């Protein structure tokens, strides 16, 4: 059942609506557990759209296996998505810095507060993100050290290649992840793919993980896969960042999710006016390329790749 979570009046007599689709068993007993699947906090992150579509479709096709409540929020920043903007347009605010919000605050704070009000009481929340338009990420769960002990067993169910215990902006204070965990709603954030695109194979991979998580929580009784064994990295482990040391056009020589050795050529930054290579980028260590530059134009200091693995 589609429900409106919050509505806000806009200029020129328009109204913004944020909606969710609630799926629940036909014969409830009142003790059902509830999971929230959230995406679209950043308007340029579309990877979650495919997952929401497939999740709802598969549940509706096999409703007899649904033993709990699934709330799907496919677009919590509709103005951003409609304008292909990462932030909330006009206000130029990162919505993932607005939580838990304020009922008496401005539009963004009010919307955040209404969303949190709707999430409260859930047994679990999964916050789906894509990367931005500049970088491609392998499917990964991100969580902070504070919640590593309580959330890691659930993160392992999500069928990702990588679990990064790391204080990234996705999990810092004022994020949805941080705010809901503070309110005792266990929440995990997933990053995958690239901005403004849908990578179906990544979406299919995460979708299977969500069914595994729902099975563990007693929300889904249907068959599930055995999740991948994720590589787990904490801040103490080695994640090596490669940055551009020149400006130009980046031409990769490696593939995303590729094993590389120290000394391998990661790519070249070229000068398309003079026809020269301005930086020959060499891997400083062995490992797996789990982040790779997607947008070719780079400047001195731009992130080119992250390598997980050896030294």
Automatic annotation (TrEMBL):
InterPro entries: AstE_AspA_cat (IPR055438), N-alpha-Ac-DABA_deacetylase (IPR053138)
Occurrences of domain Succinylglutamate desuccinylase/Aspartoacylase catalytic (ranges): 33-214
Family annotation (Pfam families): AstE_AspA_cat
Keyword tags: Hydrolase, Metal-binding, Zinc
GO molecular function, one term: hydrolase activity, acting on ester bonds
Cofactor(s) required for function per UniProt: Zn(2+)
Top-rank taxon, per record: Bacteria
Official protein name in the record: Succinylglutamate desuccinylase/aspartoacylase
UniProt lineage: Bacteria, Bacillati, Bacillota, Clostridia, Lachnospirales
